[in-house]
Amino acid sequence: MNNVKTLESVKTLLKELLLIDSSHMEGANQAVEYCCHWLREHGLHPKLIENNGYKMLVCEIGSGEKKLIFNGHVDVVSGKKLQFIPMEKDGKLYGRGAADMKAGVAAMMCAMAELKEEELGVKIQLQIVSDEETGGDNCSGYLVENNYLGDFVICSEPTQLGIALEAKGLLQFDVEVHGTPAHGSRPWEGENAIAKACTLHEKILKLPFMKQSSDFYPYPSVNWAKVQGGEVYNKVPESCTMSFDLRYLPGQDPDEIIRQIQEIADGEITVHASISPVETDKNDPYIQKLKKIVEKHTAGEAVFFGQHGASDAQFFAERGIPAIEFGPSGNNWHGDEEFVHIHSLEVYKNMLLDYARDF
Q1: Which regions span the lipid bilayer (predicted)?
Q2: Integer Cα distance of 121 and 110 in angstroms
Q3: Domain finish residue from 225, 246, 275
């Protein structure tokens, strides 16, 4: 369809996706179903898959020995009611998920619709999933486990049209801190577990692993995300649970990080989540090919960088498949003023078209 080739078609599709509150499983499933319906209406043949209640779709075009994967998620973090009503202003489209990452999904869908009739010499598989924001195990993780694999993967996270070669690894864990109870009027007779927790936090920030750096990252990051301790006002708290979100660098050993923390903590450490970092070689032929296309469309030098957060690229990277984050320009994802630059939608879609044709 000729109208697929217009910016208006990408923007219109994105607006329809933004109207769906996909911050919960039911809404995210609805968004996947909408994408499935749209693809069918545009002459494609998506397959709807469900795992543990989460829906995803897979849609493939082309033929050949090589396979390029477009991966995107339509689930979003929670937002205010008005954020699910798209608003266009000053060349920006605002809404929850506008940047992260319904813009990239809409562009990938429109690119698939344009490419479906072409003799590409390569298979292109579009994967749209519904649980990336909550870890990705039920969708992209499931797809990888069931051999929905390829030779190169593009996750359309917002990257300002730059190429994110790396992503930090993730450790989410709790630390139990123990003190000694006493009467609140005589705190010197006890040992305050919450105060000990504060001291421990400062010590963690000075551990050897925190002083390491890489080409893309000056240091790892530690977010003290939650704290739970104390019972009543007039008692020195005897226990405290600290919860951390730690993002470590490619090349660092998560077991060594936990060992260093355990050495200075006198309580139990419980790891709740662990995600491996992503590290894709800048000199990979698929990366160099994309670099040329980015520079053609932006009339500037391609920007390479590392993402601080994790994405579904992790599942493919763990299988040794080169995977990157590469998507439109936007800002404030997960924030109150999340938006995507409208002009980047068409630029990004055209980059995908050229890359698929040249793959």
Answers
A1: none
A2: 19
A3: 275
